[in-house]
Amino acid sequence: MGGRDARLTAGRRPALQNRKMSHFSVIGKPIAMVDAAGKTTGAGKYTDDLSVPGMLIGKILHSPYPHARIKRIDTSRARALDGVVAVVTGEDAPKTYGILPVGHDETALAVDKVRYVGDNVACVAAVDEGAAEKALELIDVECEVLPAYFDPEESMKAEADLIHDGKPHNIEKAYHHVFGDPDKAFGEADYVAEGRFIANEVTHAAMEPHSTLASFELDPHTGNLGRLTIWSSTQVPYYLQHKLSLVLEMPMSQIRVIKPLVGGGFGGKSEVIPLEIIAAVAARAARAPVKITYTREEVFWAHRGRPRTIIDLKTGVQKEGRITAVKAKVVQDGGAYCSYGVVTILYSGALLGALYDIPNIQFDGYRVLTNKPACGAMRGHGTVNVRFAFESQLDEISAKLGIDPAEIRRRNLLTPPCITVNGLRVLSYGLPECIEKVVERSGWSQRRGKLGKARGLGIGCSHYVSGAANSIIRSDMPHSTVNIKIDRDGGVVVYTGASEIGQGSDTMTAQIAAEVLGCSLSRVKVVAADTDLTPIDIGSYSSRVTFMAGNATLRAAEEVKKQIASAAAREMNCAVEDLMFRDDAVFQKKGAGKGARATPVETSVSGRVEGQILRGSLQQKRKQEGPKDWMTFEEAVVAAIDFHGALSGTGSYAPPPQARGGKHKGAGVGPSPAYSYSAQVAEVSVDEDTGEVTVHKVWASHDCGRALNPVAVEGQIIGSVWMGLGQALQEEMIWKDGMLMNPGLLEYRSPSSVESPDIEAIIVESIDPEGPFGAKECSEGSLAATIPAIANAIYDAVGVRLHEAPFTPERVLAALRAKKQAKPINMTEGIDPTAPTRFREHGGSLWFRGKGPQRHPLDPARRETTALADGDD
Amino acid sequence: LSLPEFKLLRPRSVEEAVAFLARHSNLRVLAGGTDLIPSMRQKLFEPQYVLDLRHIEELKGIHPRPGNSVEIGALTTLNAIEHSEFLRRHYPVLTEAAATVASPVLRNMGTLGGNICLDTRCLWYNQSLSWRKGCGFCIKKDGDLCHVAPGGTKCWAVFSGDTPPALLCLNAEIEITSPSGTRRTPLREFYTGAGDDYRRLQPDELLTRVFLPEASADYRGVYRKLRIRGSIDYPLAGVAVALKKSNGHVSDARLAITAVNPAPTLVRGARQALEGRAVDELVAEAVGELAAKTAKPLTTSALTPEYRREMIRVFTKRAIIAAAGN
Fold it and tell me: Residue A457's pLDDT is what?
């Protein structure tokens, strides 16, 4: 691996990057989301709001066993029930699929085995929900219960009853990376910190539960089922179209995926979720449209959240605080299927780089299968838990060496442009300014240590990719393509496959198109995420949309602009270079001052041109006047259409080869064309009698390159901090032998508004050379800094170092007791939260085996024993 | 999840309601519905009839009686109790407890009677039908096992209402109406202490009114609730204190705890420990110990039992110091 050399040949620079901020008319302005009205009035349609004639409701039968072989499924009683149209099982669509090409281990419905409590066994399509639910009770499934694995470190020892054939020791994937010479560097370090950190499992808890409506058209010639249309709450319409084609064995061209409004994804909708395939399979069998909407419990079972992670971390430093080497062993409890797992484990290692300057890195990562719902991508994919460990350990080191925690971070900065030891290219780097801003705003230097008893400040930093430089399926295909069409009405229609999931993708697209074309935002209509209409975009995940779809939009708009400009220049008798597009008009740059607006066009607040009827004749009159020094946007458009014929443009984006990373196994994950940076300071107080932690304020700075829409950027920063706060203090999926004890929003406790702190979002703009107008991501990077900032603030407040997240009151109190050597109370099931060794199951409640009262016939343990005893059940 | 099919009965008077109760056996009573409806979706109850009391006007409202005793209709919303100036002045522990129930939206629907009759809760019980299949059911519903106290035959589902401990501290009485008339009983005799059959209420009986006696008026009162979120959550432990002082010394006191036993429970010996004393750290600490001994938390709820018991101790101490106001 080369060091920080000058292997830099930056890609094509967008023409507008040097324009000063004041030159922008739409970019950089706080703008309401283009879809805000429908969402706030209730007029907007989400998938579950949709209905088509003859539509049936689908309900899924889930496994009550964590691991079992299916011997027989009898659906005849269910089929006979009044109102039931079809019942489908694994046999109806046995082809395997998975989001990653290396992880095709899922089937629509279980074919031979079920692998977690909640796994999908069968689906009923019926005239209403009640009938479908009743029918589920009439499906007879005969199972042979198998030993199950719940703890990843236990699962790695498995020799028999493997979760998937061909995955010895239940290890989905293991990676061992060495960059530089870590052993030598540890030997030369003045101080080496070592520790185990555990971050428990969390999930997205998006407000909208997953929903899919599948409908087949009949072929007009044969009467057989023809084209399929799917409306689904998805972040990735194109991948959904692809996987449906695979499982249904239909050409992609016969499948149309439409994404209605989506009520939040956070990664939970960034791959094909079982119900999306199941709805299509059921609709095919029923020969009628089928809609399935998950219950909240089913959302928890579909999961794909952030895995429980065990991190054994070792950091070597010189005495002035310079990091010499980092070694991380990361074990992720991945659940029963691969999902994004291979990518998740790679991110957890790759993004040890690109935040600080670390010359030597060793990473051993294990993605382990267990009999629980599959983990996948979640906001800050793969990086969050390792960042918690790293930033906590850096804080420990700074305390040990007596260096200010903010200062130790400053001493380990990268010097971009550079390529990190693990092959990540960093061009724009706003971290120094991020640290400076939060230190200044929080009064770090003056206030720290002087906040009184049990109150403290903590700092944490983080970063994230602006889209992956390599797509899931490695190819040279553009990651985003955008088409723009402008007609004689002067309306600009942008067709993009990018998926608006609440993050502001449609607004960003409209802003970029409007800025480039110099037209008002209200002229721009965005048609998005409909595979029949919009060109391919690989979806809304890994914070790629602004950077990639934004660049594609910019290029498409530039192309159309070029056509308009050539026609306008002809009309105005000037060179194309002398034209300026702005305020719904095209000006000659030189003549822009001298009476260019002799007939001013009245624009309303919304940007709509008044006097629609007069305009046509006005235009005709002006057209006959001969050459002029300015034209309205519409005149210019009409001139261009008269001259070129149809007016359309297309643009696409593929990350530059220099940004695509190294050549080692697993090098494809981590590289990005640009990284966002974040620094946060949290102020907390701790109740020393109860262990309750109150977060009073979080100062969060984020380098997003350029804030295209500052209010949207602030919203994303605040949202990230808030989600991080949940993982830091409250949110945790609690398991007992494969049973999820809190599969609902009552017991899975995302923060309420009451305990949400004041969050000061600080935007830092480093103007990335390759981002659209210099923009990078702003939706994910901030999350990872919040958890360690809070952990470090707890340490500053009361002197206890928590190595296990979330920092629930019982864990904090147990740590406080241990520190004070007070009377010990076993509050955390014997697990010391300052030095955790293993996972904590729910309470002391053991799954009772053996003696006791007669077990219920449906108790899996009873089935197991009787099956062993007499072989029939 | 769909609601099971049922017939909805909507009486306009208590007589009519009680007549329905006498006529139909497979019936559930709906007051605010905030607990019953989710439970029905989870198929914890699949009644043939639902008796919707919401149109019985005579059971709504707070009616002060001479001498500051008060009669509260069972259908009075928790929101109305929270905002009643009369109750705040004379029975502060009740308004404080009512204000902590769930969230503002749920307090607009939830009623005092509903909070008193609240079904006991357990992580192994308040789950969907398909979830409960996975664990083989439990004693409280459809099964014969207890996952919380393995091998046991008693149900430990925990009582999770916020207002009953406050009412116990106020020596509240309740009026129960049946076709054969009304009876009045102290609230402390209403709960059985079992998790499954948790209250003494015959199938043809209806809780209609709550009475707070004059003797309990103007006690100082504090309610402290352990929860992870600042809103929405059921209590994971709760402590109510009502006490009276004269000349700086406690002249009478009652203490009750909730969410750690199958019933809200008055802490025995609390009065003796406090009576005649000036409240200080030591005294409060001693009462905290008493309360912690009364608490029998198990793994029915989030957080570990040991922690919840410890919080009963801490919260009791704090509540007593706060109520004593020194």
Answer: 98
Largest CA distance in chain A: 100
C-alpha R_g of chain B: 19
State which amino acid sits at residue A437: K
Nearest CA in chain B to A132: B2
Instruction: Select from B35, B229, B320 the residue whose CB has the most chain A CBs within 10 Å, as the one to mutate to test that interface.
Output: B229
Distance CA A233, CA A239 (A): 13
In the block, residue with structure tokens 């990284």: A675
User: Residue A235: which of A260, A275, A271 has the closest Cα?
Assistant: A271
- Quote the tokens at residue B8: 């909805």
Rounded distance between C-alpha atoms, residue A232 and residue A277, angstroms: 10
Outline where A645-687 has alpha helix (H): none
A100 burial class (0-12, 13-18, 19+ CB within 10 angstroms)? middle
Q: Which two tokens stand for residue B156?
A: 């430990």
ipTM of this predicted structure = 0.96
CB contact under 8 A, B306 and A845: no
A691 near A816, Cβ under 8 Å?
yes
> What is the Cα–Cα distance from A696 to A685, expressed in whole angstroms?
7
Q: What phi and psi values does residue B19 have, to the nearest 5 degrees?
A: -65, -40
- CA–CA separation, A388 and A202 (whole Å): 14
**In angstroms, how far is CA A727 from the centroid of its own chain?**
15
Q: Does B86 touch chain A (CB under 8 A)?
A: no
Low-confidence ranges of chain A (pLDDT < 50): 1-21, 591-614, 843-873
pTM over 0.80: yes
Using an 8 Å Cβ cutoff, are A309 and A347 in contact?
no
Per-residue pLDDT, A620:
61
List of E strands, A654-755: 675-686, 693-703, 735-736, 739-740
pLDDT tens across A707-760, in order? Answer: 999 999 999 999 999 999 999 999 999 988 888 999 999 999 999 999 999 999
- The tally of CA atoms less than 13 A away on the side-chain side of residue A563 is 23
Residue A856's closest CA among B139, B143, B149?
A: B143
A848 touches B: beta carbon within 8 Å: yes
Residues A161-210: tens digit of each pLDDT = 999 999 999 999 999 999 999 999 999 999 999 999 999 999 999 999 99
Per-residue pLDDT at A624: 64
Separation between Cα atoms, residue A116 and residue A372, nearest integer Å: 5
DSSP β-ladder status, A191-199 and A308-317: antiparallel
Distance spanning both ends of chain A, measured CA to CA: 60
| Identity of the residue numbered B111 | T
Asked if the C-beta of A415 comes within 8 angstroms of chain B's C-beta atoms, the answer is no
SS3 for A753?
helix
Alpha-carbon A406 to chain mean position: 28
Mapping DSSP to helix (H, G, I), strand (E, B) and coil, where does residue A731 land?
coil
pLDDT at A829: 73
Alpha-carbon span A435 to B34, nearest angstrom: 47
Nearest by CB to A848, which of B128, B150, B314?
B150
Amino acid at A665: K
Tell whether A83 is within 8 A of chain B (Cβ).
no
Dihedral pair phi/psi, residue A773, rounded to 5°? 55, 20
Q: Where are the alpha helices (DSSP H) in A51-206?
A: 76-80, 129-136, 152-155, 182-188
Give, in order, the Cα–Cα distances in Å from B66 to each of B167, B213, B295: 20, 11, 37
Nearest to B148 among A64, A845, A862 (CB): A845
DSSP line for A542-603? TT-IIIIIHHHHHHHHHHHHHHHHHHHHHHHTS-GGGEEEETTEEEETGGGSSSTTSSPPPB
In sign, the C-alpha dihedral spanning A565, A567, A572, A574 is positive
B19 touches chain A (CB under 8 A): no
Question: Is A851 in contact with B151 (Cβ distance < 8 A)?
Answer: yes
